[in-house]
């Protein structure tokens, strides 16, 4: 029996901290504008996360350094993650999409009519990192979803991407698209970046992506062009339905970027033929030699690529 002298139980309300907010940063115009605007509003994300496939264009890596310094000056946590394969079917371990296609004598999935590159090399490593990130684990223990910010703008192209992405239900993440909430298109994003005193980022993609445009190929340094020739030469014996990285020839461009490089004289014809003739064979010899070395001591595919880039294949 409760009397007037009995203390009344105190009502308590459990207040949970809001779930952490993570920005998926692709180093492009949209995600850079989103980052800049959130910081200016006093709402910086708890973490900015970039997945590096290991083969972005050189200009993109330079821009990444600039924005990383910008974030560090504002104490915005920033992490770069990579996909780490667990099994290596064709002997030498690889740790980039470039080494992957060379190891397996194939082309990136977009050149084969699929779109799994982003899932494997960008989405998967971010998810893997966040599953080990303490703030995310704490949120999930409370039944919350981690808020993932995606830089899709209000343009027609991104509207199509948004329509697909927004239909997916993820038990761990709540995806938000602030640029669309603000009705910002690509031009508005570019203007916001300039307003913040930053240069406009270059178009982000692997330098051998099948979606790369001719003008982007023309702007590539020589070492990237040489690797494009190598990729197509290495994959050529196994190709059945496509010609090369650009898939099939059209009236405006060839199916092989190698043919474009030759036609535009971006590399000497003799160098192109030497790469096509010698490099794939040298690579196969490297793989065969690596196969008899214990895995813990086995040289990586990246080691062979460094030798190729230095022009030392025959001395290797």
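^ Assign residues to that structure.
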């Amino acid at each position: 029996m409760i009397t007037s002298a009995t203390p009344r139980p105190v009502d308590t309300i459990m207040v949970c901290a809001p779930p952490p907010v993570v920005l998926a940063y692709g180093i492009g115009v949209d995600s850079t504008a989103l980052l800049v605007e959130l910081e200016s509003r006093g709402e910086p994300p708890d973490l900015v996360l970039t997945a590096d496939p290991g083969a972005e264009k050189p200009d993109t890596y330079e821009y990444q350094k600039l924005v990383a310094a910008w974030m560090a000056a504002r104490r915005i946590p920033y992490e770069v993650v990579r996909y780490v394969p667990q099994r290596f079917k064709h002997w030498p371990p690889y740790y980039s999409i470039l080494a992957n296609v060379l190891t397996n004598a194939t082309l990136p999935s977009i050149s084969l009519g699929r779109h799994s590159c982003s899932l494997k090399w960008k989405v998967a490593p971010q998810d893997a990192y966040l599953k080990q990130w303490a703030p995310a684990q704490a949120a999930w223990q409370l039944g919350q979803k981690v808020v993932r910010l995606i830089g899709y703008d209000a343009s027609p192209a991104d509207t199509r991407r948004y329509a697909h992405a927004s239909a997916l239900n993820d038990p761990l993440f709540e995806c938000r698209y602030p640029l669309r909430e603000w009705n910002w298109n690509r031009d508005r994003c570019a203007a916001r970046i300039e307003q913040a005193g930053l240069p406009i980022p270059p178009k982000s993609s692997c330098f051998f992506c099948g979606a790369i445009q001719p003008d982007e190929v023309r702007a590539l340094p020589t070492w990237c062009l040489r690797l494009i020739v190598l990729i197509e030469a290495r994959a050529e014996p196994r190709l059945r339905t496509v010609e090369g990285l650009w898939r099939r020839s059209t009236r405006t461009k060839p199916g092989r970027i190698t043919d474009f490089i030759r036609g535009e004289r971006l590399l000497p014809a003799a160098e192109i033929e030497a790469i096509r003739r010698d490099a794939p064979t040298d690579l196969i010899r490297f793989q065969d030699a690596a196969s008899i070395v214990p895995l813990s001591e086995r040289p990586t595919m990246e080691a062979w690529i460094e030798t190729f880039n230095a022009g030392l294949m025959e001395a290797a």
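The chain is about 45% helix and 5% strand.
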